[in-house]
Design brief:
Distance between the termini: 129 Å
Helix content: 40-55%
Strand order of the largest sheet: 3-4-6-5
Shape: globular
Protein name: 4-amino-4-deoxy-L-arabinose transferase
Low-confidence stretches: 1-152
Organism: Micromonospora purpureochromogenes
Strand content: under 5%
Keywords: Membrane, Transmembrane, Transmembrane helix
Mean pLDDT: 80
Radius of gyration: 44 Å
Length: about 750
């Protein structure tokens, strides 16, 4: 279109006729905007019709857009400004001057009125752009024309609402706070780790049954070592609550110092020891922690297998095989051995914190320092439960740190240097966490060094280790507590010198699954071979001196690693063998489960057959079946009344390693000073007390006990049958300067 000198508007190549394209017919809108548009056209009655039409069209569109708002006042200034510009330039009679002005005006009004072109809007004159942009900011001309009815719907921001929104589905109502909380709880309940935790707890209750049937009166396996460990938890809680400075100087083995460190302390369970008092509370506490220890072991091994890359079914096999291996049934009376769940859990947390997986390798984007700190703290807690299994764990962690440090050095400086390959924050977390772990270990080691210094007879030799070293047959022999293999392996156990520590069968099902994992697995071949090497090395160490006298195996560790000579039973290295076998088995089961998923994906619709679903569960069920137990749960001897009323220091007779452990449990009512005690070794003084008091009451024994500071002697009538006290219990004591009193079923001699 063009505009002539007189400003007349006419379509190019056509004769004069009605308004075309964007111009608004008179009376179409019935508002001032249309009148202003017409007024804009009239002054330019002569000139180039093409340019005039452009001016008229653009101006009319602007007018229509303004009219659509229903505000004549807004429409009028825009039209007036445009009209002034067009008329002023056109009235000069200079087409060259008129054309650029008209073109700019047309662009401005057209862009503002509905083309949605921001570039055009920006090129407009300030007055025009501001007016038309504010009043006619529609997406297209259709919307502008629709607004002329004056019934335009607007949203909360004053913008026109899409006409078709009325046909859209109603938005979901925003849930209230209670419903959001309920949904969050629902998601939490069906989360994998919630289900894994609940399953681990349920399995622990069922697989250790009847531990919780009579938790106040019975203990698993026997009431000797469990009584000792029930007392340990009670004493640590009592000492920390009353006299923390006396923690390592317990009420037993009077008048010995550092007596709490005569065996593994289970110090990590001290918070539980703060709840309740007396023998019944101690027995209940022990049984609860016994069950929870099994649950934690299952969850920890499951978490480790999952972090390393195993599937759920494979991780479940690793978890239950690590916890319910047949050989562990012989350790039911040793809570410090059963409490091993912190080992795989700490390793899982550390691996997750470092973004490392056996299956997927190192993934820096998955690093998380929080998990790293948590892993080190759990490792320190595990160490506080005892050095029996904690010391090998500490050396394993030290080896991992050494490998990681070497890898860091190579990546940082030698092989394809990478700036901070582990990240500064992660490196700081490892340094801080490692120092915490080492600090806890050092503080716990101080009492044991004191005990070694004061009691040289507590030191062990390779000859002592040989007594507990199992032969190769032990790896295929189950303990008597195994429901499946116990009776069948009775003859094999008879050939073992000390079968409670030499029946090391991890499970024939586990052996088979691990063997299959060497050929069919989600782990790479190199990783399978490394796991196999770990299995063989730990088996050799578990044999102690039975493997070529341990000269180049266990003997090297015994002679050169600090603290290793304090470990009495090498067979407990089987814990690491079981864990590595479980990871091999997890690789095989995970590969099988993946294959089941591929077969199911080929079906239409996607739905695994029931038989395929059952097949993925069978390995777990078989491992659990092999872990069923017939562990006895004897009733704990009832506490004598005298143990609640007689003050210390006291001596309870008869005294021996096994008899003294229930006496320690009985002392949990008031924790009097007690000469009795049972541990991994017998102090020289206690051995002397037992020898001298065989003739009690006589002058020699009375004088000796007075020298030690003993004030009362409690003689248990139900325990003296067949002992020297059966005759001397009623002997006259007047000439000894002591008194005798009957208190319940006991005789109390007051010195």
């Amino acid at each position: 279109m063009t505009t002539n000198a007189t400003g007349g508007a006419q379509p190019t190549g056509q004769t004069d006729g009605p308004d075309e394209q964007g111009s608004t017919p008179p009376g179409a809108t019935g508002q001032d905007g249309a009148a202003d548009a017409t007024a804009t056209t009239k002054p330019s009655s002569t000139g180039d019709a093409t340019d005039a039409q452009s001016t008229t069209t653009g101006t009319a569109k602007a007018a229509t857009g303004d009219a659509g708002t229903g505000d004549p006042a807004d429409a009028k200034p825009t039209t007036t400004d445009t009209a002034k510009t067009t008329t002023g330039d056109a009235g000069t009679g200079d087409p060259a001057d008129a054309k650029p002005t008209t073109t700019d005006t047309a662009k401005t009004t057209t862009g503002d009125a509905g083309t949605g072109d921001p570039a055009d809007a920006e090129s407009a004159t300030p007055d025009t752009a501001k007016t038309t942009t504010g009043d006619a900011g529609k997406d297209d001309a259709t919307d502008a024309r629709a607004g002329s009815d004056g019934d335009e719907k607007k949203d909360g921001d004053g913008e026109p609402r899409d006409r078709w929104s009325a046909f859209a589905p109603a938005p979901d109502p925003v849930p209230g706070r209670p419903r959001r909380a309920a949904r969050a709880v629902g998601r939490l309940l069906v989360h994998e780790w919630t289900l894994a935790t609940l399953a681990a707890l349920a399995l622990a209750v069922g697989m250790t049954w009847p531990t919780l049937r009579y938790p106040l009166y019975t203990l698993p396996q026997d009431y000797w070592d469990p009584s000792l460990q029930a007392w340990q938890m009670a004493w640590s809680g009592h000492a920390l609550r009353t006299e923390p400075g006396q923690l390592f100087h317990s009420n037993t083995f009077f008048p010995e110092q550092w007596s709490f460190a005569f065996s593994d302390m289970l110090l990590g369970y001290a918070p539980a020891g703060m709840i309740g008092t007396g023998p019944e509370a101690a027995v209940l506490r022990y049984n609860i922690m016994f069950v929870l220890a099994h649950a934690l072991a299952t969850l920890g091994a499951y978490a480790l297998a999952r972090q390393l890359g195993a599937g759920r079914a494979g991780a479940a096999v690793a978890g239950v095989s690590y916890t319910y291996a047949p050989w562990l049934l012989a350790q039911a009376g040793h809570l410090h051995i059963v409490s091993n769940g912190g080992i795989p859990l700490a390793l899982a947390m550390l691996a997750r914190g470092h973004g490392w997986s056996l299956r997927y390798g190192y993934r820096p984007e998955r690093r998380h320092v929080g998990w790293t700190y948590s892993g080190w703290l759990v490792a320190a807690w595990q160490l506080s439960l005892g050095f029996g299994i904690g010391l090998p764990f500490a050396y394993v962690l030290a080896g991992i740190v050494l490998v990681a440090a070497t890898t860091w050095f190579l990546r940082r400086w030698v092989v394809r240097p990478v700036k901070r390959p582990f990240g500064t924050r992660l490196l700081v977390a490892d340094l801080v966490g490692g120092l915490i772990f080492a600090g806890v270990g050092a503080l716990l080691a101080i009492p044991y060094f004191k005990v070694a210094e004061l009691h040289p007879n507590a030191a062990r030799t390779l000859g002592d280790i040989g007594v507990y070293s199992p032969p190769a047959l032990g790896f295929f022999t189950a303990p008597a507590e195994s429901r499946v293999w116990g009776e069948l392996h009775e003859s094999a156990r008879a050939t073992l010198p000390w079968h409670p520590e030499m029946t090391l069968l991890p499970g024939f099902v586990l052996y088979a699954l691990a063997a299959g994992g060497l050929f069919f697995s989600v782990w790479k071949l190199r990783q399978r071979l490394l796991l196999l090497a770990g299995v063989l090395v730990t088996m050799v160490l578990a044999m102690g001196t039975r493997f070529f006298d341990g000269t180049f195996t266990y003997g090297l560790l015994f002679e050169h690693l600090p603290g290793w000579n304090g470990l009495r039973t090498p067979g407990r290295m089987m814990l690491w063998t079981t864990l590595l076998l479980g990871l091999l088995a997890a690789g095989a089961v995970s590969a099988f489960a993946d294959r089941v998923g591929e077969i199911a994906a080929e079906r239409a619709p996607y739905r695994p057959s029931p038989w395929l679903r059952v097949a993925t569960v069978v390995p777990v069920l078989l491992v659990l079946f092999e872990g069923l137990n017939v562990t006895p749960h004897p009733v704990v001897p009832e506490q004598p009344v005298a143990m609640r009323t007689v003050d210390g220091p006291m001596l309870v007779l008869p005294s021996s390693q096994n008899l003294d452990q229930p006496v320690m449990l009985w002392s949990t009512s008031t924790f009097p000073d007690l000469v009795n005690g049972g541990s991994g070794f017998t102090p020289t003084q206690l051995d002397e007390v037992r020898r001298v008091t065989l003739a009690f009451p006589d002058q020699t024994s009375v004088d000796y006990l007075r020298t030690l500071g003993v004030r009362n002697v409690v003689l248990l009538r139900d325990q003296i049958v067949g002992t020297p006290w059966e005759v001397t219990v009623n002997a006259p004591v007047d000439q000894l300067g002591i008194t005798r009193e009957e208190v319940g079923d006991a005789v109390v001699f007051r010195l």
